Structures are given as structure tokens and as C-alpha cells.
Amino acid sequence: MALSFSFGGLPVPPLIDRTTTACSSNNSSSSHAFDAAYIKRAAELADKSAGFTAPHPNLGCVVATTANGSGKGGRPGVVVGEGYLYAEGTSPAELQAVESAGELSRGATAYLNMEPGDCYSDRTAVSALVNAGISRVVIGIRHPLPHLRGNAIRALRSEGLKVDVLGEDIQSKTIEEALKSCLLVNAPLLFRAANRVPFSVLKYAMTLDGKIAASSGDASWISSKKSRTLVFQLRGRSDAVIVGGNTVRRDNPRLTARHGGGHLPRRIVMSRTLNLPEVANLWDVAEVPTIVATQRGAQKSFQKYLASKDVEVVEFDILNPKDVMEYFYDRGYLSILWECGGTLAASAITSGVIHKVHAFVAPKIIGGRNAPSPVGELGMVEMSQAMELIDVSYEQIGPDMLISGFLQPVPDLSPTIPSIEETSAVDPSVSPYESSIIFFYKTWDPYGAFSNFSPHAIRIPDENGDYFTWPSVEHYYQAQKFIGVTNPIAQTCLDEIKSARSPEEAARIGRKIQRQHPHLVRDDWESVKINIMYKGLKCKFSIYPHLNSMLLSTAGSVLVEASPHDLFWGGGRDGEGLNYLGRLLMQLRSEFLGDFSASHDQSATHQERKDELNRL
């Protein structure tokens, strides 16, 4: 007889009774079906974190006893633990899953939609699986970042665990479907890694006759309320929403993620001339920042006006979608939603930066010779030149139809030649980092541990000498802005920072209150913030030996935080920044090297004295 079950709304193939005799091909097929089902569940879990504290990979883990009954105390094929990574700096999915499973992890199989990334040399995810007694690991896809790809797989195999990678070690039609789910849940990361621009989605709503507004320009509302709610959710999964100047002038949008859950995406306006209204909803940055991208030298007086409203202005020599996306790639953006008009949409498509399209088609006809369409002139004169969507899906949303598809295939980042890191392991003369300048910024970079957002807790005394454990240096730094301030709002902010689930959230809370209520920030903040950062960094690099070794390994190199927009802590876009974070790290490196040298000299002197005594 067969036993069937389901979990999380995901159907699972029936389990074969152990007393049933079957040929090896049937056993293999059944095994693949189980692997596929659990990998799909891991991808489903991973998707729960999309957009909450982006950018970060979407990682899920399922721990299940195996179909032949191995797995201490568990029924055959039972899911005993699950977890997903909420954000960088929070508990790994693998650790959550094995902790949930407890003793049932021993001899079980762990299913991961993507290879875990080890940016910090602490191997938390790998160690969690090894220490829990997991016997087999099935991985959907390798990590897309070259300096992380394959590291965890090699580490797990070196510990004696059996590791299977979909499409490499396991192949079947069922597995192909599971592999697709792994690719889709991390499509933004894959596109970003392959193309070196953020994953960009073009969203628009149009009538049956292809209009996004009436001839008068009125566009409220083409789509239904259900469709608009879904748009809020799409915004909540994005790092930023981008529009052109025409949209600001015509619609005066807010571009918030109302009712959409997730985090609030930044708003980006692209305007070559800065012919924009002085009064606009986007200039209200109390809840979420706005960035205006423009051409160098455009309306300096209006730039000053925007600056007075705390709107960030970024100038480009020539304003075009490709350069703008490369800039936001450098700022670490993962996913951007384009809600622009037809002219900017056409420019973005021809620039090759649009990867996916969401088109809401409403059952309405409005007509109008001059009514705008969702995409402007692309230079195509024959139907054979039309761009066809890939992997198209259709979904009815209330009365509307949502048509979605990719303009470009999801990149295949399977390694075809050895990476520099793999070559370096064989030939030490090949170094992946030869530059005398070492740049760091995001936690997934090769030197991501230098970031304040890396998941390394610090225990440090406060002004009263009482010790408190902060989840990261960023938590500690942001909280110090409000230490000693008696205002209840400041105390509430301090409590929220202490309990923030990730460094990104701690930063958002601290920056928001500082922007909205500057009077709540301690009076001496500007004079003490460098010393506070130094104390936090010194604690971090003192208590984690592997981080200390990483810092010392950079001796002789200049350390630069590659933030293109932070001109105080970072190096700036064109090297114009003060780079105080890099300076402090180099100062600490010098101090640690001095301590190491002094200790080495003392040891050498002690040994010399011992040798002299032995000769006597």
C-alpha cells in the first residue's frame, strides 16, 4: 500500500511501502520525486523573505527523514524541520531547520534551494548541518556569486556528507521542474550576478486596445482594486520603484507599498531636464527616501531645492537607463520595479536592462488616436522583429488578466571552467585579489565581513559599564545616536533598534528617526560618532579570530568602503568620499599588527634566553 501526505499546500508524491518489491528504476524515480517535492518546498519557504530586507539571497531549508525509514525516530519521508533566511545577519535557514528537527536530524536529508554562502569564514550553515548529524544534502543550485560558488559544497563533502546538486548529480524531468523553482525564486540574484545590473521588472496596466491612459492623460483607474493590491506587493518585494519625469508631472504618484507587506522601496525619478513640479508627493521623504537621477548641470537651483527637502540628487554625464542601473548595482540594489511611461520604458528595453514584464490587461476599451501606449518607439518595422516573452504565465486578477514573462532567459551560472578561487587552491601563485586597493561594501563581497552589516554580534559595555550584546556593529552604532536622550520617542527608537531582526532594519530605524526628528539625536553625536564606530569595530575584530586574520591578511593594501553615495564613511562614487570606515579598519589593522609584532618579539626573546641557558 502507499502512504501519501502534504505540507504547506504542496502535494508530495505517495511513499512506497517498504515491503513492496520494485525495480531499481522505480526506486530511482520515486527518490527523484521525493527530492523534487522537498526542493520545491525549500524554494517556497525561501520566497517568504523576498523583499523584506533586500538585497539578500532567498534561502530555504527542509529537513526530512528518508524514504527507506532512516532518520532516528521518524516516520519514513516525514518533514521534521524547516527554516528560511529572513535577511543577511539573521539565523541561517539551515540552523533553524536542524534546531526545529532536533534529534530527528540525525541520518536525515537536508534540502536547500540554493547553496549557502559563506562570506564571513564562520561556516555557520555548514557547521549546523554537520553537527546535527545530517547524512545527505540536496542542493537546488550553486551559489551564483563566483567567490562563493562551490565553497559550501566542498566543505560539506569534506565532512563526509553526501551532497547532490540538481542538474549535476541528479537528472530527470521531475528534477528539471524543481530546478526551475530554484532558479525563479532567486532570479533577481542570478540576473544581477550575470549582467551586473539590478534585476528589472517593467509593470504596466493597459486597456484591451493597448492604452495606458486616455488622450487627456487621465489613467485613474485602468486596472481593478485587486490588481492594484498585487502591485503594492510587487513594490514590497523590490528595492526601488522607478518612474520618469512625465509620470511625476502627470500622476503625482506616491509609489509606496501600501497594504503590500514587506519593506518600503526607495523611489527613483529619472529626469534629464529636471522640469519637475516643486510640489510633489515624492518630495515627502518622511517615510521613504527619494532619489532623482538627472543629467550633469541640469537646473542647479532646483537641485538645491530638492536637497533642502532631503531628496538625493545624482548627476550623470549622459542620463540613460544602462548607466543608471550600473550605478544602482554599485549601490547594492537587487531588484527594481519600473512603473514608467512608454518613452522611458522603450529606452530601458532597448538598453537591455529590462528582464521581466508584468502586464495587467483590463477588459476596457478607451480608444483615442493620441492615447499613450505602454511602450514607445523601439525602431521595429516588421512583426518578425517583435520581442517574445519567455516562460509566459497567465493569471486572472479580479476582472483583469495578468500576463507575465521574461524578456531574457534566467541566466545559467553553472561553472564551465574552474573559477579563480578553484585555480588558486591548486596554484597558490594565482591570486584572486592582486590589487593594492581592496574594496568592500556589501556583506556578500569577498571581504564582506568588513561591513557593519555582517552577522557578528558584539558584547560591549555602555556608559554605565553594563554589558549588552548587540546583533551587529550596525545595531550598536545606530543605537548610540539616542543613548542618554530622555525623550520617550528616543527611548522607543532605542528599544526598536535593539530588537531589530537584521542590521538593515536597525539602520532603517535609526536613519528614519534621525531624518524625521533630528532633535532626538544626542547633541554630541557628530563629535563622537567616529570614536563610537571605532569601539564597535575593535570589539568585533578582537573577539572573532577569523575576522582578525582576514583583516591582517590585507596588510599593505588600502581598504576602501565602496559606497558610491556615502561620502563620509565610504569612498564615494568617484573617490571623493572621506572613507572613514576604511580608515578605521586600517588603523585597527596597524594596531593589531603592532600587538602581533610585540608578542612575536617577546616570544623570540624568551626563546633566545632559553637557547642561551641550554648552551650553558
UniProtKB/TrEMBL annotation:
Q: Which GO terms describe its molecular function?
A: 5-amino-6-(5-phosphoribosylamino)uracil reductase activity; diaminohydroxyphosphoribosylaminopyrimidine deaminase activity; hydrolase activity, hydrolyzing N-glycosyl compounds; NADP binding
What Pfam families does its record include? Answer: NADAR (PF08719), RibD_C (PF01872)
Query: In which pathway is this protein known to take part?
Result: Cofactor biosynthesis; riboflavin biosynthesis; 5-amino-6-(D-ribitylamino)uracil from GTP: step 3/4
Question: What are the record's GO terms for cellular component?
Answer: chloroplast
Q: Kindly state which reaction or reactions the protein catalyses.
A: 5-amino-6-(5-phospho-D-ribosylamino)uracil + H2O = 5,6-diaminouracil + D-ribose 5-phosphate; 2,5-diamino-6-hydroxy-4-(5-phosphoribosylamino)-pyrimidine + H2O = 2,5,6-triamino-4-hydroxypyrimidine + D-ribose 5-phosphate
> Which species is listed as the source?
Coffea canephora (Robusta coffee)
GO terms for biological process, alphabetical: carbohydrate derivative metabolic process; chloroplast organization; FAD metabolic process; response to high light intensity; riboflavin biosynthetic process
Task: Please tell me which top-level EC class this enzyme sits in.
Answer: oxidoreductase
Which EC number applies? 1.1.1.193
UniProt domain CMP/dCMP-type deaminase: residue ranges: 33-164
Quote the PROSITE patterns the UniProt record gives. CYT_DCMP_DEAMINASES_2
Kindly state which keywords UniProt assigns to this record, in alphabetical order. Glycosidase, Hydrolase, Multifunctional enzyme, NADP, Oxidoreductase
What CDD domains does the entry give?
Answer: NADAR (cd15457), Riboflavin_deaminase-reductase (cd01284)
Q: What is this protein called?
A: 5-amino-6-(5-phosphoribosylamino)uracil reductase
